[in-house]
Amino acid sequence: MKNPPQYIDWFRNSSSYINAHRKKVFVVLLPGEALAHSNFNNIVHDITLLHSLGVKLVLVHGARPQINAALEGAGIESTYHKGLRITDAISLQIIKQIIGALSIDVEALFSMGLANSPMHGADIKLARGNFITARPLGVLDGIDHALTGMVRKVNAMAIQQHLDRNNIVVLSNLGYSPTGEVFNLSPEEVATETAIALNAEKLILFIPQNGIMDSSGHMVSTLSPASAQEVLVAVESRDENKANGVAQALNAAIAACRHNVRRSHLINFEQNGALIEELFTRDGSGTLVSKDNFEELRPASIEDVGGILELIKPLEDAGVLVHRSRELLEAEISFFFVIEREGMIIACAALYPLDSTCGEIACIAIHKDYQDSGRGEHLLGALEAHARKSGFTNVIVLTTQTTHWFLEKGFTPIGVADLPEKKQRMYNYQRNSKALRKPL
């Protein structure tokens, strides 16, 4: 095998994520729409893979479309107030039947172990119980919500005991009161409160689309809780997002991240492998809501030398950049800036001082997977800002293949004789690089 298949490289690159996820608690919301979709078997396989890799899992399943269908079949009209179903005693009896049947179906899927299938040898044990204490929602805006409730307490200790025994815990959208009542809850609230109570590493919410769309209809890959709150306005303005649970899921992601859950992921339950792509690749497949700096432009440190060398090597081999040894790069590392994404250096550039008024921008390199993404402009802007702060009145660049790019960024051609004296002495006439300058 001269050229290893792409999946081999992917599998090798996933090792850092495997190590990071092991023994961490993930809470996964499986809405009723996901359970009813033809891709759900694949989701079960992917969840089984996570369990095999040492992830501690709590699954929260909903039943919104199944309940709607059952109530309609019984001739009962569903009534809502602010997105919450108003649950009377008759409706609750039907809801309990639906939840019980769905929970059994989920257990059956995780019990499969056919040879030549992803479930073979998994031997997964599921745990269910009265882990969610609930209370009635009460009267809101003059409307009695009857047996619709909200989470009062999550028995995190009991859940954690099952997780420590290597069991997967399964919760539904039902909660129980100390007086023996059963309440119909929002599955998004159950998932959120459970993630918070367990100090979960992640809250994963399946939705019927590829992440969250902004007001222009474009998928947003990463959001802070604050920016997610702004996007939520656009999401809630579309009625379909309330009906299909997208608005509720985004609300849950924001609430979780504003507490102690580091990351919330919103991914498509219709897309085969979306869960694996989201958790084991740098760019994921959906929308990440996180307080972390998912991508950061910063000054380079000595720990970045290896990543920079790996980044610039293809450009050195192609003759685009001058070769730099590890020793030289270590000596010059204070001149470099990098963009780090999920622990990987994906871009770098340097600003070398030439005299009291001029600096040289050099060694701009962008990882092949992130080119044409605006990161070059981002780096250039940061270097120009740093040059101004350093007191430089202009910057120069020498290039063999990217002249037009720099011309578009406001640089103008100059001759070798116009270069600072230090750079004239170092000029390599064999490379015959084009010289350009930009006043600051």
Task: Give a description of the structure.
By secondary structure, the chain is of the alpha/beta class. The protein has 2 domains: 6-292, Carbamate kinase (3-Layer(aba) Sandwich), CATH 3.40.1160.10; 296-439, 3-Layer(aba) Sandwich (Aminopeptidase), CATH 3.40.630. 38% of the residues lie in helices and 25% in strands. It has an 8-stranded mixed sheet with strand order 5-10-2-1-13-17-18-16, sandwiched between helices. Strands 19-20-21-22-23-25-24 form a 7-stranded mixed sheet. It has a two-stranded antiparallel sheet with strand order 3-4. The mean pLDDT is 90.
CATH superfamily of the largest domain: Acetylglutamate kinase-like
Query: Which percent range describes the beta-strand content?
Result: 25-35%
Outline: elongated
Low-confidence stretches: none
**Number of separate domains:** 2
Strand order of the largest sheet: 5-10-2-1-13-17-18-16
Structural class: alpha/beta
- List the total number of helices: 17
Number of strands: 25
Q: C-alpha Rg, in Å?
A: 28 Å
CATH architecture of the largest domain: 3-Layer(aba) Sandwich
**Sheet with the most strands, sense and barrel status:** 8 strands, mixed
Output the CATH topology of the largest domain: Carbamate kinase
